[in-house]
Design goal:
By secondary structure, the protein is α+β, with helices and mostly antiparallel strands. It has a domain at about 350-395. The chain has helices spanning about 20, 50-60, 70-80, 90-100, 155-160, 205-215, 350, 355-370, 375-395, 405-420, 425, 515-520, 530-540, 545-575, 620-635, 680-685, 695; strands at about 30-35, 35-40, 110, 135-140, 140-145, 150, 180, 185, 190, 195, 200-205, 245-250, 260-265, 270-275, 325-330, 335-345, 435-440, 450-470, 500-515, 585-590, 600-605. Strand 10 (about 195) and strand 11 (about 200-205) form a beta hairpin. It comes from Flavobacterium weaverense.
């Protein structure tokens, strides 16, 4: 195979944290603001380090590595410096979950985003790491010059390359986007308007087509029905050969925003006011610019990359949304919502059943027998394996499991291991990716003892996060109607073999509540008002709040109890060990389903957070853990907004918080799993009916 050629890239690189790249607000399809303009991150098929893993796997096959050894070969080769020192996650539980949830039947590797260094001054990627980089393209692709003439990136690019004064036939000097004036060269300015759809699509605003439509049908702007603007012709010329010269000017009148701007074409003289632009209703054409091909498998002979990434017509699909697209600014917070799946690493012994563990052992013995050409032993093992597989299939019901139950079952695996397994059983990982210490005895003999069945000090834990998909306009896991998410890959699910993830390490405290005491509390008067409020909210719910209220009803007061406790502990840790709540995270384990019944929470911090490692677990020492819980509960009896907060019948998002507000219970948005809702101090510390009423007397 010929050696891949990479252009001498001296400018078009931007260093972005891997934790930002795969996060609640970043990932494939997201818009990232750089020093050179706004870019849209390409789908994972365009990520260089993932292609590298596939190349290594292909080399393994071509060189005759045995099939059973290919994965080990890839893991070892990927870590070599010449291959970029790429890590492969060993979180088998997360791998299996992605296979089941996204239908990725051929998924083999969870690949860690490598550290790719960019030089400060030259902006070159260090150590020839171009082939590992993550590709992107400009979004929006509309730019304008100092005279406010608007053109697509491709048009500006072609003008630049054809201008003989530039002596730049292939656009090597075009970046950052620029144009020729009479006597000099000036940089172009990127437009900041896009159209977004609740099915995940995003489009450049079609200024020329908009101008023609406003002049031909001036009254349609008041129509409630979305206009199929993208199917119309531009102001002048045709779709393939537009002669429009679009310009946006500002009036001298004292008008703000788009109310004082005018759109006109210097070719035909048509013009229209941009007043009301943000409320225009346009039907979605199904554009997916993040799926544009940005490279030719590394054969980048020219600085400009693949011409597909410059095209005015990005990859598209039929959009089934009945709603109009939203006009949005590229700095808007509704452009991208990522849905993440985070996993705490657990050795197989902690979550696999006995049959599966036995089957895995037999598979290894079978492979060894085949290698030694011991056919009799291989046939015997094969027979046992077949019986075990049939037994497992007979014991499990073949049925479609919804994502919500998959989430609960995934959490229950963690809860069951942490709450029910012995300390020695949990600490089986030789590398110590999970190491815990049972500190329940530290509250023994105190008035806290009856409330908790277990408290664990988590000295070391590995958290692996993967992005499931993303949405625009509203979060995919919100409760709005007709929301559709988009995958971070463009190919068919059954052809995806590699998937990007990020890993970090941390420490934490795990609390498991006494289930008997929880059951007894169900007869308490303390939950009556909460239930009444939830049922009343359910009666008034709309399509947007219905799902959140339904979730609150399903998990009931138990969710409020555990979730509020977690928030109060996080806030108290700010005082006890100096961690701001933004550096802490919660993991809530609540389910009233008999199959997955659990009541617990974990508070943890990860590397890179403010505060040093060891500060959190130090709070599990005998005196510290008692003081932490007692102080948190007592502090929560007072709020600066009382009595309004304490007596509230509904506040916060969807009015699903009761005696909880920013002054007493809410934490950083990034720290909370439930959007800072399902909180109520009264259920914990009401002096007559609270769960912890005896602690505060």
């Amino acid at each position: 195979m010929a050696a891949k050629q990479y252009f001498d890239n001296t400018q078009a690189n931007e260093a972005i944290s891997k934790f930002k790249l795969l996060s609640a607000y970043g990932g494939p399809g997201s818009i990232v603001h750089t020093a050179y303009g706004s870019i849209i991150v390409s789908c994972i098929e365009e990520w260089g380090f993932l292609k590298k893993i596939l190349d290594i796997q292909k080399d393994a096959v071509d060189t005759g590595v045995k099939e059973k050894n290919i994965k080990d070969y890839v893991v070892k080769q990927a870590k070599l410096e010449r291959n970029g020192n790429i890590g492969i996650s060993n979180d088998a539980r997360l791998l299996e979950s992605l296979i089941n949830r996204k239908g990725l039947t051929e998924l083999k590797y969870l690949v860690l985003i490598p550290d790719i260094a960019v030089q400060d001054f030259s902006n070159k990627i260090k150590n020839s790491g171009n082939e590992l980089a993550i590709n992107s393209s400009f979004m929006p692709k509309v730019f304008f010059d100092k005279s406010k003439h608007y053109k697509f990136y491709k048009e500006w690019y072609n003008e630049w390359c054809k201008n003989k004064k530039n002596d730049d036939k292939y656009g090597a000097k075009f970046f950052p986007p620029k144009y020729n004036t009479e006597n000099s060269i000036s940089n172009l300015t990127q437009d900041n308007i896009v159209l977004i759809c609740d099915h995940g699509h995003i489009s450049d605003f079609p200024w020329s087509k908009f101008l023609r439509w406003r002049n031909d049908s001036p009254m349609e702007i008041n129509s409630e029905k979305p206009i199929e603007l993208f199917k119309s012709q531009p102001c002048c010329g045709t779709e393939d050969s537009s002669t429009s010269i679009i310009k946006i000017t500002s009036s001298t009148a004292n008008a703000s925003g788009f109310d004082g701007k005018w759109l006109k074409c210097e070719s035909c003289g048509k013009q229209t006011s941009l007043k009301g632009l943000m409320s225009v209703k346009i039907k979605c054409p199904g554009h997916k610019p993040w799926e544009a091909i940005t490279s030719n498998n590394g054969e980048l002979k020219y600085h400009s990359g693949n011409s597909n990434s410059r095209s005015k017509m990005p990859p598209l699909e039929n959009c089934s949304s009945t709603k109009a697209m939203k006009v949005a600014l590229t700095t808007g917070n509704n452009l991208y919502y990522s849905r993440m799946l985070s996993s705490i690493y657990m050795p197989d012994e902690l979550f696999l059943d006995d049959n599966t563990l036995k089957l895995n052992t037999l598979k290894k013995e079978f492979e060894l027998a085949m290698d030694n050409e011991n056919l009799d032993e291989a046939m015997r093992l094969k027979s046992i394996m077949t019986s075990l597989i049939e037994e497992s299939q007979n014991n499990s019901l073949v049925q479609e499991i919804q994502d919500s139950e998959k989430d609960i079952r995934y959490r229950f695996e963690e809860y069951k291991a942490l709450a029910l397994k012995d300390e020695d059983e949990i600490n089986v990982d030789k590398v110590e990716h999970l190491k815990v210490k049972d500190v329940t005895a530290n509250i023994s003999g105190s008035n806290l003892e009856k409330y908790f069945s277990r408290i664990l000090r988590i000295d070391n834990m590995k958290i692996t996060s993967a992005q499931l998909d993303f949405s625009r306009v509203v979060p995919v896991d919100s409760d709005a109607d007709n929301i559709s998410s988009k995958n971070i890959f463009s190919s068919k699910p059954d052809s995806v073999q590699v998937y990007p993830v990020v890993e970090n390490y941390g420490e934490g405290i795990f609390f498991s509540f006494n289930e008997e005491l929880i059951n007894e509390f169900s007869n308490s008067k303390g939950i009556e008002s909460l239930n009444e409020n939830l049922y009343e909210l359910n009666q008034k719910s709309d399509t947007f709040s219905e799902g959140a209220i339904k979730y609150g009803l399903e998990n009931n007061w138990q969710l409020y109890l555990v979730h509020t406790f977690a928030h109060l502990i996080m806030r108290e840790l700010e005082f006890k060990c100096g961690y701001p709540t933004a550096s802490l995270s919660e993991r809530i384990y609540v389910s009233n389903d008999e199959k997955y019944k659990m009541y617990g929470c974990m508070i943890y911090t990860a590397e890179g957070a403010e505060g040093s490692m060891g500060g959190l677990i130090a709070q599990t020492r005998p005196d510290n853990i008692k003081n932490l819980i007692l102080s948190a509960m007592k502090r929560s009896t007072i709020c600066n907004s009382d009595p309004l907060c304490w007596e509230s019948d509904g506040q916060g998002l969807f009015e699903l918080n009761f005696a909880s507000c920013f002054s007493c219970s809410l934490v950083s948005e990034t720290s909370c799993e439930h959007r800072n809702i399902y909180l109520d101090r009264r259920i914990l510390v009401d002096e007559n009916n609270g769960f912890f009423k005896e602690l505060i007397k």
